[in-house]
Design brief:
Number of helices of chain A: 11
Largest interface: A-B, 35 and 29 residues
Number of helices of chain B: 19
Distance between the termini of chain A: 51 Å
Radius of gyration of chain A: 19 Å
Oligomer: heterodimer
Number of strands of chain A: 9
Structural class of chain A: alpha/beta
Structural class of chain B: mainly alpha
Largest sheet of chain B: 2 strands, antiparallel
Strand content of chain A: 15-25%
Strand order of the largest sheet of chain A: 5-6-7-3-8-9
């Protein structure tokens, strides 16, 4: 079951995604190597989260396909762990930290079955890995932002995946959490896992990651941080809006959707 | 006890079944923020009931239930389709379906009642419900449908839970989130249909949402919340149905809603963690403490300006410092005086030695914080008073010690005023309290050198 060493962890081909008539990702080709810590970097609205969701099959692309270790996502689901943005859920949900982490195991518990004691133990071990074991029974709204982020990471760890997709794991966390995440990323890398994380802080890209994807609706650059993360590529990523591309895409999509054309 | 009458037994059974099922499903609707969807589905069921009656020509429950269910599902499909394929947003789609279907239903209902024998159809009870009209056949059908609903919820428990908490994550695990969504909608429609005769289309949403909202106040566990909600729903159902059965012409729906709402109000006010009463009391305690600390501090500063803490300060002067009303001042003063921190002579006040100590502590926090802001955040000294007014009530001993350490045990604030009550007792910066009260003119602390900007204080 081990993936061949040279097989890309993620292969994306000709991926185009739009929300209504707004293009978000345009013709993205991407191969990401296994066993690396990979940052996805780009300005707001560059389609970073959308790229993760398209890889996970959560948004439907207009064109293109995605392969995880050489297979479609549906066949590799158990190899992939997902850490959504912390703000994407309602933390006032009536549940405990341990319970949220147990959700990471729901995929392998099977339909109509309840989590067993063994699953709860696994979840507890994941909480230990992020230093949150003391908060297992705590209601999740009573956790700080950083603690909530660590609960989300623990939930993904419980999946015991080969590839982790994380949406802004460092956003708005305290120093303790930041250190905890960094240690975790290093451990995952040492264990041969691949991590792809949307990252906002350009200052820390070269410290935290060894591979970077620069994205602004289309792929700008993709490679080892040392070679790729330079001023020229950043300028190409952040400098200027892609007006022509946006307009062309909107026209094209509007043509496909006659019902909506009255707005243009 | 007399054996329950035939009607009362039906009413009780029907109301309990509906309360439990509505309470369980309502939790998921509430947590998914789909409360209004239930309302739309209920209103959408009305034309279905009418259609069922017109087609079958009878008011036997099964055609009416089927009609209601079909119409509810069509309403749900309309909402989904409108959101997916048009630019109509979900809230508008729900509003449109609710009003259009209900309007059509009322038109059909009016038509039916004008038909020969239509008056006897009893369809108008579907508006507000009439539990007393339930026959055993109805209750049986309700019981069967509810059992199916509850079994499905139990089987799909973890799928429904993930759906409500984090749909995308569930989908990334490969859990059938779309099917769970469809299931939940189907179950909601079923509950609505189950409750039509008892509560009616207009108010049935209350049997879903009100018990769930009340239960949420008492617990932080989904399982407990669902169980509690079922219990509250059943209790409200029984109370409402019994009331309506014993009061002539009182429809059951409103009676159940009133009973459930009473539980909700009590829960909102009194639930241990979330109750508004406790929050209000906590707030009041804090406000009271802040007012008292401010009074101590004001007495301290007036004494500091005078160079004498022994003389009494008049109430009007104290009220003038921060615009405190006379009753508020009296309340704070009464409490402080009972703690022997101040002494009262008529309306005039002064600090006792213990009070002076306590007041110095507050002023110390204030001035340390001001100094911290000017040194560490490099704020100009005329920007630091207001934040310090808040922090002086919030800093605890650990934070104060940390501030002292960071600032190197300072002696003066950014305005040049001394910081009283240093960590080592007896040092010069601690205000002297050697004097017995009443002997202040001789023994009071030394006047503060008046070399500071008097506009910015303290």
């Amino acid at each position: 079951m081990n993936p061949p060493a040279n097989e890309p962890a993620i292969e994306v081909h000709d991926l185009t995604v739009a929300y209504h008539t707004q293009p978000v990702l345009w013709d993205v080709d991407l191969e990401l190597p296994p066993g690396r810590l990979i940052a996805i970097v780009g300005p707001n609205g560059a389609g970073k989260s959308t790229l993760l969701k398209a890889i996970l099959g959560l948004v439907k692309p207009i064109t293109g396909w995605v392969k995880i270790f050489g297979q479609p996502y549906a066949k590799r689901r158990s190899w992939v762990g997902y850490v959504p943005q912390r703000e994407s859920v309602d933390w006032d949900f009536p549940t405990s930290a341990l319970d949220v982490v147990t959700m990471g195991l729901y995929g392998r518990i099977g339909w109509f079955r309840r989590p067993s004691k063994k699953h709860r133990e696994l979840a507890r071990e994941s909480l230990v890995k992020v230093g949150m074991e003391d908060y297992a029974e705590r209601q999740i709204s009573q956790l700080s932002g950083g603690q909530q982020q660590r609960v989300f990471l623990a939930r993904a760890l419980a999946q015991d995946a080969r590839l982790y997709l994380m949406d802004e794991p460092f956003a708005g966390v305290d120093a303790t959490t930041e250190r905890a995440i960094l240690t975790l990323l290093q451990e995952l890398k040492d264990a041969g896992r691949t991590v792809v994380a949307v990252h906002h802080d350009l200052q820390t890209v070269s410290d935290y990651f060894d591979h970077v994807v620069l994205l602004n609706m289309r792929l700008v650059a993709n490679g080892p941080v040392a070679e790729t993360f330079n001023a020229e590529n950043l300028q190409r990523t952040y400098g200027g809006k892609l007006t022509v591309l946006t307009q062309a895409a909107e026209t094209l999509l509007a043509d496909r959707r006659p019902a909506a054309s009255g707005d243009h | 006890m007399d054996p329950l009458s035939f009607t009362a037994r039906n009413v009780l059974a029907g109301a309990t079944i509906l309360g439990v099922t509505g309470g369980v499903l309502g939790c998921f609707a509430l947590l998914r923020r789909q409360s209004l969807l239930g309302d739309a589905l209920a209103h959408a069921a009305l034309p279905g009931v009418c259609l069922g009656f017109l087609i079958s020509g009878s008011k036997s429950p099964i055609p009416l239930f089927l009609g209601a269910m079909a119409a509810g599902l069509v309403g749900a499909l309309f909402i989904v389709a409108a959101v997916r394929w048009s630019r109509v947003k979900e809230d508008s789609a729900i509003g449109i379906v609710l009003s259009v279907f209900f309007g059509v239903g009322i038109v059909m209902l009016t038509y039916i009642q004008r038909l020969p024998g239509g008056n006897q159809s009893g369809l108008d009870k579907y508006l507000f419900g009439q539990a007393a009209a339930l026959v055993p056949e109805d209750v049986q059908l309700m019981a069967i449908l509810s059992t199916i609903v509850l079994v499905l919820v139990a089987l799909a428990w973890k799928e429904l839970k993930v759906l409500a908490f984090d749909r995308d994550f569930g989908a990334s695990l490969g859990l059938p989130m779309r099917r769970a969504e469809i299931l939940l909608t189907l179950l909601l429609v079923t509950v609505v249909v189950v409750g039509l005769q008892t509560v009616g289309v207009v108010l049935i949403v209350a049997t879903l949402i009100t018990p769930a909202a009340a239960a949420r106040q008492w617990t932080e566990r989904l399982g407990v919340m669902v169980a509690l909600s079922a219990g509250i729903g059943a209790a409200a159902g029984i109370a409402g149905a019994m009331t309506s059965a014993s009061v002539p012409r009182l429809p059951t729906g409103p009676a159940i809603v009133v009973a459930a709402s009473a539980v909700l109000v009590v829960s909102l006010l009194l639930a241990p963690q979330r109750g508004l009463v406790w929050a209000w009391l906590r707030e009041r305690r804090v406000t009271g403490r802040i007012r008292r600390e401010n009074l101590l501090k004001d007495l301290y500063r007036i004494g500091e300006d005078r160079g004498d803490w022994g003389r009494f300060v008049s109430a009007p002067q104290l009220m003038g410092v921060r615009g405190v009303s006379a009753p508020r001042l009296a309340t704070s003063a009464g409490r402080l005086s009972s703690q022997a921190l101040i002494e009262r002579r008529g309306d005039d006040l002064r600090l006792t030695p213990e009070g002076l100590d306590r007041a110095a502590g507050v002023v110390r926090k204030h001035r340390l914080w001001e100094l911290y802001l000017t040194r560490r955040l490099e704020l100009p000294s005329d920007h630091v008073h207001r934040p310090a007014e808040a922090m002086e009530h919030a800093l605890d001993a650990t934070a104060v010690a940390e501030l002292e350490r960071l600032l190197g045990n300072p002696t003066h604030d950014p305005h040049g005023r001394p910081i009283p009550g240093g960590s080592k007792p007896g040092v010069a910066s601690k205000p002297g309290v050697a004097s017995k009260p009443g002997d202040a003119a001789n023994g009071g602390p030394q006047p503060v050198p008046d070399d500071v900007d008097r506009e910015v204080r303290p």
